[in-house]
């Protein structure tokens, strides 16, 4: 063996070692079952932090539980844009929290979660069965958030000569024309996630009258999303062309859109029940707020089915260090009267027979909820009624925004169908 | 022979000391940069949702077929290319122009340099939110236009306007570093050559073409490569300024990886997109280096 070959051999071994050591370190760090229970005995709870639900709110919410049980709860905000984005990343990194708030299980995450079907306290919680996957129940919630609401400015309606909220699409189109003539922005929409959300919200009742459990029909390839939503795309395209919806709304943030409605410049504003919390916080509104359920399909009874989601859902990760503690925490959050009361008042959440004192706007929403013939799955769906794709809402928003930038309803329908086909 | 004996151990000691000093850096470099890239390559050939309980399933080139077969994803590549090329051209032209104006040291120029560098100090997310407040439909500019009775401009609500607004905002945020690079490069231009050109009666443009520009060759190369790579990775400004909209018109490849593919748990597809981004950055860097080498060879052959 020559000196050169010895040196080369050393070099190769050195390089291999330099490459192998970090690889082993990384592999050692990333391997394992994904168990990441906190070592200091705390229960880690991942929550969405919003204007209405901030860190102080969550800490105050769990304080009585900590005092009663002696367990410590650590509130954690998302490491990314939202819990929906952060939770899968944390699962992959092996740093997932013990309790997860605000998201629902799906085919990927369900195997990582504890089935709560056997918990007696869970059975009577709101929408428990609606969120079942097969026979398993991974999520329990505090109440219901209604998704298909149209908030309106009663003063604007009076000035425009509109006596009653519309119950059909033709009546709605006439009202929009009258509101425009009266000098109001007839319908407020917004950019970001809200463009697609609002289009879905206003069309939920009609869509579910025409195609009950439409997500399942799409899953079974009996219906395409484009066919289901094409009439809604047509409505929006007509309203944009008529100037009832501003094209520039697509560049507007949701909070700016909220502000426009609160300032009294707007006739109609489609939103979910959480907007009631924002309205309730706004003192001295310059007008009276009304709420109605969107128009029904032609020839169908009004109101139609109401889009609804489980509010404040909680899930527990499988492999959590203190499973009993995590279950006790979730039980407290969804069954303790004071915890429920705090959560109902915070973000437009409703629960039957809660006994909570309601504002005028809350009472109207409760009325819409009580009159709805059915509560139906929204967007990507829930439990056993789900689309065969993930990431539907962001893509739907992109497609809805294309209506503002010149795409035809047929193009929009084709685009969403193509995406579903590519991601099915 | 007697003199050689003590030299050898010292050589080994020196080599050992050298290795011990270099090894930690090499280990960190390999662990933090090489290993993730290897993982990205590996995952790009698998179907995997990223969860430790799932085993990645090898599927060959399927993820690359998905990336190139999806109009959605190929659109993001085109947008990324436009952002990188147009942004790199604009940021470098603007930075070089201003560096030429601010190269002399006086109080005004020092103040000017600080002001120009300031945007780089801000986080890209803050930059996006700041410009959203300025360019949005109800932002400062459109509110002022409305007050003087002019139609609003669709900075963020028209696809073409939104793309160019985003490019200009990124240019604004990157500009400071490129300016510093060019200012440093201009300090290295030989004063005697500039003086000789002046004595020979060369005008400002002729002096720039014949003396300053060739002397700046390595600076320009570095500036184009660094700005091009930064622009290829554009993500934060997209999130805070446009959210990828309207209608996906500002969705870059990096945004698609982080805000679409990862949340959808398509780790394989996201990794394939990341590998393509790495290759694009490598192609960009090599192309600029080759062009520069060729230009230098041409110059030498003429000389």
From TrEMBL, chain A:
<dbReference type="Pfam" id="PF01547">
    <property type="entry name" value="SBP_bac_1"/>
</dbReference>
<keyword id="KW-0732">Signal</keyword>
<keyword id="KW-0813">Transport</keyword>
<feature type="signal peptide">
    <location>
        <begin position="1"/>
        <end position="27"/>
    </location>
</feature>
<protein>
    <submittedName>
        <fullName>ABC transporter substrate-binding protein</fullName>
    </submittedName>
</protein>
<dbReference type="InterPro" id="IPR050490">
    <property type="entry name" value="Bact_solute-bd_prot1"/>
</dbReference>
<comment type="similarity">
    <text>Belongs to the bacterial solute-binding protein 1 family.</text>
</comment>
<dbReference type="InterPro" id="IPR006059">
    <property type="entry name" value="SBP"/>
</dbReference>
């Amino acid at each position: 063996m020559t000196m050169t070959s010895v040196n080369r051999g050393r070099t190769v071994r050195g390089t291999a070692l330099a490459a192998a050591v970090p690889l082993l370190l990384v592999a050692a760090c990333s391997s394992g079952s994904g168990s990441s229970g906190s070592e200091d005995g705390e229960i880690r709870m991942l929550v969405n932090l919003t204007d209405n639900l901030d860190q102080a709110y969550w800490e105050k919410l769990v304080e009585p539980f900590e005092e009663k049980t002696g367990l410590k709860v650590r509130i954690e905000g998302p490491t990314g844009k939202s819990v929906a984005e952060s939770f899968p990343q944390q699962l992959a990194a092996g740093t997932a929290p013990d309790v997860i708030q605000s998201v629902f299980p799906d085919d990927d995450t369900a195997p990582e979660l504890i089935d709560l079907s056997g918990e007696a306290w869970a059975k009577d919680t709101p929408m428990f069965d609606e969120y079942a996957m097969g026979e398993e129940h991974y999520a329990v919630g505090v109440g219901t958030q209604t998704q298909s609401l149209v908030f309106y400015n009663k003063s604007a309606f009076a000035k425009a000569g509109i006596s009653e909220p519309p119950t059909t699409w033709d009546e709605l189109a006439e009202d929009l024309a009258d509101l425009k003539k009266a000098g109001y922005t007839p319908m407020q929409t917004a950019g970001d996630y809200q463009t697609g959300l609002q289009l879905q919200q206003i069309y939920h009742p009609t869509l579910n009258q025409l195609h009950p459990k439409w997500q399942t029909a799409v899953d079974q390839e009996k219906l395409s999303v484009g066919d289901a939503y094409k009439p809604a795309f047509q409505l929006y395209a007509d309203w944009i062309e008529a100037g009832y919806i501003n094209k520039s709304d697509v560049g507007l943030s949701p909070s700016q859109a909220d502000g426009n409605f609160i300032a009294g410049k707007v006739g109609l504003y489609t939103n979910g029940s959480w907007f009631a919390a924002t309205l309730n916080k706004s003192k001295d509104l310059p007008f009276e707020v009304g709420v109605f359920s969107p128009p029904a399909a032609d020839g169908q009874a009004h109101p139609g089915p109401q889009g609804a989601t489980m509010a404040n859902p909680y899930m527990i990760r499988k492999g959590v260090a203190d499973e009993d503690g995590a279950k006790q925490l979730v039980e407290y959050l969804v069954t303790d009267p004071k915890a429920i009361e705090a959560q109902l008042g915070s973000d437009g959440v409703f629960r039957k027979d809660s006994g909570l004192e309601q504002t005028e706007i809350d009472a109207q929403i409760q009325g819409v909820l009580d009159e709805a013939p059915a509560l139906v799955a929204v967007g990507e769906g829930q439990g056993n009624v789900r689309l065969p794709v993930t990431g539907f809402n962001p893509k739907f928003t992109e497609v809805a925004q294309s209506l503002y930038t010149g795409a035809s309803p047929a193009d929009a329908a084709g685009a969403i169908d193509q995406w579903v086909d590519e991601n099915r | 022979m007697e003199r050689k004996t003590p030299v050898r151990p010292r050589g080994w000691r020196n080599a050992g000391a050298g290795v011990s000093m270099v090894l930690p850096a090499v280990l960190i470099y390999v662990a933090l940069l090489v290993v993730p890239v290897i993982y990205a390559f590996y995952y790009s050939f698998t179907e995997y949702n990223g969860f430790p309980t799932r085993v990645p399933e090898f599927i060959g080139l399927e993820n690359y077929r998905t990336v190139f077969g999806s109009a959605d994803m190929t659109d993001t590549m085109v947008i990324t290319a436009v952002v990188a090329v147009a942004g790199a051209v604009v940021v470098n032209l603007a930075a070089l122009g201003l560096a030429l104006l601010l190269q002399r040291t006086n109080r005004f120029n020092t103040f000017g340099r600080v002001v120009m560098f300031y945007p780089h100090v801000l986080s890209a997310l803050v930059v996006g939110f700041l410009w959203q407040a300025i360019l949005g439909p109800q932002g400062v500019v459109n509110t002022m236009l409305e007050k003087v009775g002019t139609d609003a401009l669709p900075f963020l609500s028209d696809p073409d306007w939104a793309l160019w607004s985003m490019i200009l905002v990124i240019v604004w945020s990157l500009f400071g570093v490129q300016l510093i690079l060019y200012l440093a490069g201009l300090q290295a231009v030989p004063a005697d050559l500039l003086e000789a050109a002046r004595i020979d009666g060369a005008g400002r443009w002729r002096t720039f073409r014949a003396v300053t520009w060739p002397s700046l060759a390595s600076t320009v190369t570095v500036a184009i490569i660094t700005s091009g790579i930064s622009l290829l990775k554009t993500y934060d400004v997209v999130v805070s300024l446009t959210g990828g909209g309207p209608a996906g018109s500002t969705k870059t490849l990096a945004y698609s990886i982080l805000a679409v593919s990862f949340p959808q748990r398509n780790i394989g597809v996201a990794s394939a997109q990341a590998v393509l981004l790495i290759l694009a950055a490598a192609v960009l860097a090599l192309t600029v280096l080759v062009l520069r080498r060729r230009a230098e060879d041409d110059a030498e052959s003429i000389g």
